[in-house]
Design goal:
There is one protein chain. Helices cover 45% and strands 25% of the residues. It has 12 helices and 13 strands. It has a 6-stranded mixed β-sheet with strand order 8-12-7-11-9-10.
Length: 301
């Protein structure tokens, strides 16, 4: 049996007439009669007694009606849900990222993305870059933001690299705040807040200062960029900060007027990777979110 047969049968049972059923279904009477006959032939059971040009349902037809109504309602619901999925109105997106973009940047982006999509749910998990890579590699998350990874790091991941030039954060009361840009020479001997020694930013700064014969004075080490800005606000240190954190700080922190962000020379590059599963196709909804995420991150370059 098929959906057309069940719809024809249901309409005849409800209206009590082939002609009315045909009118409701925008079909001809012979077409509806043919559907009823083919349904009876398939199930091997007579559903109607035909007397004097009228149809009288047998008791078994009442049972079939209750089942048909339930089946057709489920099909209608499925069609509605698939339409909503196709129109990107429903579904779930799983996002994992290192901490910095998870505090302000991603919640804001996600809020804007789902604002007009009430049926869309989002899971946002903050993890280390390594753990985020593992979760996406396991095909459990749709997208991740991590510190840049090598092209050959994992066959289980697709990734796109984005590079950013770090900005120098100085206290508004520091004499350096009046400059148009900051050089490595300006920071020689000055207290700095920096990421841990294992991070690429630390290695780049160390190389620059060594090459120029400058004094690298690291007073504070942190795991993430954002905490460094507290030291800058209090005039205790300068710091090299990525543009993602800068944008989040300027949009969300009431103490933002205490810090000035200036270009730094030579360039100190902060690189991230946007990772997606290599062996699990993304849903239409997740694909659109990933495109939105990439565009937002590229706008900060």
């Amino acid at each position: 049996m098929n959906v057309k047969q069940l719809k024809a049968f249901k309409e005849v049972m409800i209206t009590g007439s082939v002609s009315k059923a045909a009118s409701n279904l925008f079909r001809t009477q012979p077409a509806v009669s043919a559907q009823l006959t083919s349904l009876e032939n398939e199930i091997g059971m007579v559903l109607f007694e035909r007397r004097e040009g009228r149809l009288y349902p047998v008791p078994e037809a009442e049972y079939l009606l209750s089942e048909a109504v339930e089946i057709l309602e489920k099909i209608e619901n499925l069609e509605d849900n698939l339409t909503r999925v196709r129109n990107l109105e429903t579904g779930k997106i799983n996002v994992v990222a290192m901490l910095s973009p998870s505090i302000f940047f991603l919640p804001k982006l996600i809020s804007e993305f789902v604002k007009e999509r009430e049926g869309v749910d989002v899971s946002l998990l903050s993890q280390s870059s390594f753990q985020a890579q593992q979760l996406v590699s396991a095909q459990r998350y749709d997208v991740g933001i991590v510190d840049h990874i090598a092209e050959s790091s994992s066959p289980l991941l697709k990734h796109e690299r984005l590079d950013y030039r770090c900005l120098c954060a100085v206290s508004v009361n520091d004499h350096l705040a009046k400059k148009s840009y900051i050089t490595a020479e300006d920071l020689s001997g000055k207290p700095l807040a920096m990421l841990s020694e294992s991070h690429m930013i630390h290695a780049q700064m160390k190389q620059v200062f060594n090459d120029l014969g400058l004094v690298l004075n690291i007073r504070f080490e942190t795991q993430y960029f954002l905490p460094q800005l507290s030291f800058v606000e209090n005039g205790l240190a300068c710091a090299l900060i990525d543009p993602i954190t800068v944008a989040s700080y300027q949009e969300n922190c009431i103490t933002k007027d205490k810090v000035v962000f200036l270009p730094f020379k030579p360039d100190i590059t902060f690189s991230i990777s946007i990772v997606t599963p290599a062996h699990r196709p993304l849903s239409l909804l997740a694909s659109m979110f990933v495109d939105t995420l990439k565009n937002s991150l590229k706008n900060l370059q």
